[in-house]
Each structure stands twice: as structure tokens, then as C-alpha cells.
């Protein structure tokens, strides 16, 4: 790896002892779910695009391959396929939905086009004994979740039907000798009964994977990996005080001890008392070297007069980089830069037709420059958020750090609609503080995935103490979600909403009115800008 290069390849740096399942992504909305289910079983899984290279395949050494579903059809001339070396790689293969159709097509079966999509619940009956259904007391008939229009109508040579459903005779097939299996339904979604047992049978019974993907093993593996890479060098971590960078700090601390230096940049767009709290909490619970850089006036100066959300984000990202660059130069002899990139960031940034090793401009640090005088390490790059949280708990990072709601890199700037001023920031900080305090008092904080307040660019009439007031309007928003890609609104009881609104209007002088945002995602986003 050459120096001055921030972009690294997403290789498989797992120790050889870790069994893995390779998931080839054909663009299904459920691909991430397949990966998660397999990890829940205790087996490491990795998602790759359909055009992965033979050298990467050999490097990964998967013990099994899963072909995901997707919106494709084998009848399309420019359909997404998979290279021959993947299908000829001598490990068990499971095709799900479009993946099954691809297998049927490749091995000489027939797929029929149907103008009607079969979507939703269907009744599935096992026909022959197959290793896929052998363990876990899977009944003969159960409900499954379908989402397809094409279906397999003729089996490839040496394949047999192992299950049928209401609308398709060949709903599951196998070639037990070559260990190739196809399912028309989605075992990864919870609507499919016994789906996880089927995936368990594939990974454990058929592929022979060992359940080595445990939190303890992950921690050991990550620490060993950091030690091997970093050796005796110093590491700089841009810390935000959120769960991802806190867990990264704890892991690197375990690997390199005092050689870890954390930098926390105060953008002036943080929550009330956040600088003080982060400093106190991080120093107390993680015991790391922490440098705080107060760049608030720099950020506010650059944002003066700016109203457009995208321009705000860009300015904040660039300012962050400049500040980070300038300050990091003052720290001599630092060779490594650590980031808290997690797996969904990696997946989201690599489209199914891309080469997949692109790195997303990191959320927390607002996008670091491509050329930087550091080597990059991303210790939690392979993990989902819930896995990061489990690691945090295992490392005894206190709950208040692990269970914190996400806070966006651009901070309150994307929660103040229109121009940002010092006054609006301090109003929003007070409001946010009351809102969070009250949902904590009501025991709701951990039931809500993210709660936030938004400063609106309008004024409204109110009455206080017999006096007419013409003051700001604040929106409050609380959502429930697991992946933050979709979200439902949280049902905060009216009594609590009432208390929150009363306190805000009474305690924050320039606020006249509070509204509750009742928009799901989609169509809304979680943040307002
Ligand atoms: P949206 O608003 O896109 O947000 O529904 C989804 C999740 O991402 C967070 N978010 C960000 N986090 N930098 C961040 O670090 C950003 O620019 C950013 N924009 C949105 C948001 O808070 C939510 O958790």
C-alpha cells in the first residue's frame, strides 16, 4: 500500500480460521437482511457485487455462496449474471428468488415470464427430504414470503423439486449431490416461517461452517488486525462522541494503548453541553488521549448567510477537513488515521454494478480528502450497527455512550431551516435539551431510535401572561427504526407531548409554538434538511 493514499481495498483481512458465506448481490431490497441473518446464526457473511473478481473470490475462500434476489429477469438481454468461476467454485450454493432463476438458467432449466407479480404470503409444502429442511423441526407445510414475477417451470438435469407453493410448482429445488439449492421465497424475511432455520441448515449443515462469528471473537480478531497493521505507530481518530467512534476508540486503545490520539472538533453546531459531556464521558470511560479543537467561530463565519441545505453540508464538510488537516499536522509522527465507517456505509456506497471498494465520505467527519498523509484503518468496517453496539457492551463502554441516538455530522445545521445564527443555535440547543430530558424522564429514550428538534423559519402568534407574542415555531420528531433507511413515527403519549410542549414554550423565551412531526420515512427523511 502506498503512502498518501486514503482509499484502501476492501480485502478480506479475517484470519483464515473464520468460516464465511459469500452473498452475491443482485440488487434485492433484502440482501442486507440475508447478511444479518447469517451473522445472527454466528457465521461471518460478506456481500459482494455480481462482478467480483476471481482473485477476490479465492481470497475470501467462502464455505458457501448465496445468490440474492433482485428486480432482474433472466430473459433480459442485459441481465445481471454471475461469472462462471463463481458457479463452478466448489462450495454449496443457495439461490434465492432471482438467484434461483439464475441457477436454473445456468444449469439448463426453464424460466417462464409472468406478467403478474406474486408478492406476499404463500403456502409452501416440502415435497422430498432435503438437507435444507432436515433440522430444526421444520413442518411439512408453512407460510413463506414471495416477491417475484418469473418462475422456474422446468428443472435442470439432475435437479429435483423439494417444495411447491400455492402459485408455483417448483418453489424449491436442489441437486443434493453438487449441493446446489434454490428457493423461490425469501428465507431472510421474518414473514417466512422457519426461514432462519433454513439458512442455518444451509450454513451449518450443508456448508459446514463453524459458528465463529461471536462478539468475543470479533473483538479479538479486530484487535489483532489493528496490532498487525499499526505495529508501534501512533493512530489518530476523529471522534464524535457517538457510538461508532467511541467503540473504535475503545478497540484501538486495546490494541495500541497510549499511541491512540483522539481529536474532537467543536463545530459550534453540537447539542447543549455536548463538548463538556463528550470530554468528560470519553476521558472517564475510555481513558484515551483527547484533544478538543474549538472551531465554532470558523464554522459559523463560513455558514453566514447560507440557506441552501446542500451548500451548508458542503461548507461544513470542507471546513471540517481543513480544520482536521491543520490540527493533525501539529501532531508529529502520526502514521495512521482511524475512521468509524460501518458496513451499511460500505454497502450503500457501492452500487451493484460498481467495483464495491469505494469508501463513502464518512458521515461523522463529513468526508475526508482523498489524498491525505495517513494510512487509513477502519476497524468496524465489516459490522452492522447492532454488532457495534454489542462490541461496545462487551468492552464495558457505558450504556449512555452505546445507546445514544445518532447525531448527524453537520449537527444542528441541518436542523435549522434556512440561515444559521448563534441565536437560533442556542434556542435549538435549549429545546433539544428539554425534549431529550423529558423522553428520558418518561422512560422512552431507549424505545425511540432517534429524537430531534427542528428550528422552523417561521413565526407564529401566541399569548403568554395576557400578552401577545410573535415568536418562533419548533418541530419535534421521534422515530422508530432499525436501519435508519425506513422509519415509523414513535408513539409518544399525549401527556408526555403536552409536558414537552409546555416546558419548551415556558422555558425557551423566543419559542411560541411546538408541532409534532408525524411523517414516516419514506416519504419523509429523518432529518429535515
Ligand atoms: P435521513 O435524514 O437521511 O437520515 O433520513 C438517516 C440517518 O442519517 C443521519 N444523517 C446523517 N449523519 N451526517 C451524518 O453523520 C449527515 O450528513 C447525515 N444526514 C443524515 C440522520 O441523523 C439519521 O440517523
Bound molecules: xanthosine-5'-monophosphate
Q: Note the gap between the termini.
A: 38 Å
* Broad structural category: alpha/beta
* Count of runs of 4 or more consecutive helical residues: 15
Question: What's the CATH H-level homologous superfamily of the largest domain?
Answer: Class I glutamine amidotransferase (GATase) domain
Q: From the alpha carbons, calculate the radius of gyration and give it in angstroms.
A: 26 Å
The CATH class name of the largest domain reads Alpha Beta
- The strand order across the widest sheet is 2-1-3-4-11-10-9-6-7
Quick check: average pLDDT?
90
Can you tell me the CATH topology of the largest domain?
Answer: Rossmann fold
Low-confidence sequence ranges: 1-16, 351-366
What can be said about the biggest beta sheet? 9 strands, mixed
How many distinct beta strands?
Answer: 20
Overall shape: globular
Going by CATH, the architecture of the largest domain would be 3-Layer(aba) Sandwich
What does this structure look like?
The chain is globular, with a radius of gyration of 26 Å. Helix 6 crosses helix 12 (about 385-395). Residues about 1-15 and about 350-365 have low confidence and may be disordered. About 30% of the residues lie in helices and about 25% in strands. The chain contains 15 helices and 20 strands. It has about 525 residues and is of the alpha/beta class. It has three domains: about 20-205, Rossmann fold (3-Layer(aba) Sandwich); about 215-400, Rossmann fold (3-Layer(aba) Sandwich); about 415-515, GMP Synthetase, Chain A, domain 3, CATH 3.30.300.10. A nine-stranded mixed beta sheet has the order 2-1-3-4-11-10-9-6-7, sandwiched between helices. It has a five-stranded parallel beta sheet with strand order 14-13-12-15-16, with helices on both faces. Xanthosine-5'-monophosphate binds near residues 410 and 450.
